[in-house]
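Re: that backbone. Tokens:
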């Protein structure tokens, strides 16, 4: 039986000892770490035996409860998930391809991702100005039209994480049969101009390589054998990916908040004001106590939802509940860490300021809190109606 705790211990040592010293590296920019830095970190992870640790040598994937401890360890630095190849969107894309790609598709698209040799992007969200799909994927405007043994895709996408520099693309478009997913070789598509990055958005977060791009897709010809699944299965495939991906976001950022709380705790014990350490002032001590409570509640919520997924359930409602509870708890934690550290907390001298920015974005990414609550309210109404019929 796989010892996930042992894997997590190795990942934690690597992230704390090797990755954390890179947190002030000049190759970290507003749009994430450079590809040069990513390659350097992954080379070290490969040597340390912690690259893509959630996928075993025989190709099997750790159970979600096991992934939780591994990704929490990876998240102890904002650079950790990228370094060990468990970052979004690659981790979610690898999970989806591992579940639904054909053998040929896995060899061509998945295997290089697992080896940490290529990054990927998931092209689903569309610009609001176009009336396109955001939190409501049914509004999708990007089209896919069959043409012989190819499909021709046209449209625009927005907030596409990692598009700049990615080699593997998963493109979602609307065919006559419904939403459909395609696998795309991005370097060839960029070179031909069929996919063009219009701009990389300036966003509050800065941990993901390539940032978040607005992308134009013009007459992109995709061979039929690069369709993922069947025509019209796009939403079904998205759900295979999205519920676990929401949860892995929670896992990674829990790790980051654990580290931020460690830094704030150390600061509060070392820094003196008004005749005593900050920790001895009730206002400060209570904030750190509340952090411990929120950290434990977030951990338990993640473990509960992971258990639901490991039982074979789709976990749509459960992952929504976990995403809301954990993202909101982590926001409180990150905010308190900044507050405890005062002026130092808003500087780049530690990762606390970055974790605050990243977690603030997380409350929106993978579905805003309000959309998940709305979805849960709809489920409550459906369940109530169903109960009235019995």
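Recovered sequence:
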């Amino acid at each position: 039986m796989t010892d996930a705790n042992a894997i997590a211990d190795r990942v934690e040592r690597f992230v704390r000892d090797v990755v954390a010293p890179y947190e002030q590296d000049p190759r970290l920019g507003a749009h994430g770490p450079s590809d040069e830095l990513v390659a350097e970190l992954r080379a070290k992870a490969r040597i340390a035996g912690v690259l893509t640790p959630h996928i075993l040598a025989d190709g099997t994937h750790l159970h979600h409860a096991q992934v939780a401890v591994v990704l929490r360890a990876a998240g102890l630095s904002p650079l950790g998930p990228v370094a060990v190849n468990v970052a979004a969107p690659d981790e979610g894309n690898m999970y989806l391809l591992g579940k639904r790609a054909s053998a040929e598709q896995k060899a061509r698209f998945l295997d290089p991702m697992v080896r940490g040799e290529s990054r990927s992007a998931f092209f689903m969200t569309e610009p609001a100005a176009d009336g396109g799909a955001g939190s409501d994927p049914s509004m999708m405007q990007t089209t896919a039209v069959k043409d012989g043994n190819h499909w021709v895709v046209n449209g625009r996408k927005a907030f596409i994480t990692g598009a700049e520099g990615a080699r593997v693309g998963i493109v979602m478009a609307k065919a006559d049969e419904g939403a459909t997913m395609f696998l795309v070789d991005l370097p060839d598509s960029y070179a031909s101009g069929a996919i063009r990055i219009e701009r990389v958005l300036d966003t509050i977060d800065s941990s993901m390589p390539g940032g978040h791009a607005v992308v134009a897709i013009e007459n992109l010809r995709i061979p039929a054998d690069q369709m993922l699944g069947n025509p019209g299965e796009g939403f079904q495939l998205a759900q295979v990916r999205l519920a676990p991906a929401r949860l892995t976001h929670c896992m990674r950022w829990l790790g980051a908040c654990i580290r931020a709380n460690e830094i704030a705790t150390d600061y509060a014990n070392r820094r003196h004001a008004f005749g005593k350490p900050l920790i001895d002032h009730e206002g400060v001590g209570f904030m750190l106590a509340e952090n411990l409570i929120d950290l434990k509640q977030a951990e338990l919520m993640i473990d509960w939802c992971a258990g639901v997924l490991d039982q074979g359930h789709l976990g749509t409602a459960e992952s929504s509940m976990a995403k809301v509870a954990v993202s909101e708890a982590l926001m409180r934690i990150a905010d308190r860490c900044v507050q405890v550290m005062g002026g130092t907390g808003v500087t780049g001298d530690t990762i606390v300021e970055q974790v605050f920015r990243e977690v603030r974005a997380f409350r929106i990414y993978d579905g805003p809190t309000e959309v998940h609550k709305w979805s849960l309210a709809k489920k409550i109404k459906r369940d109530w109606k169903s109960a009235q019929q019995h």
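The chain has a mean pLDDT of 97. Residues 85 and 289 are 33 Å apart (CA to CA).
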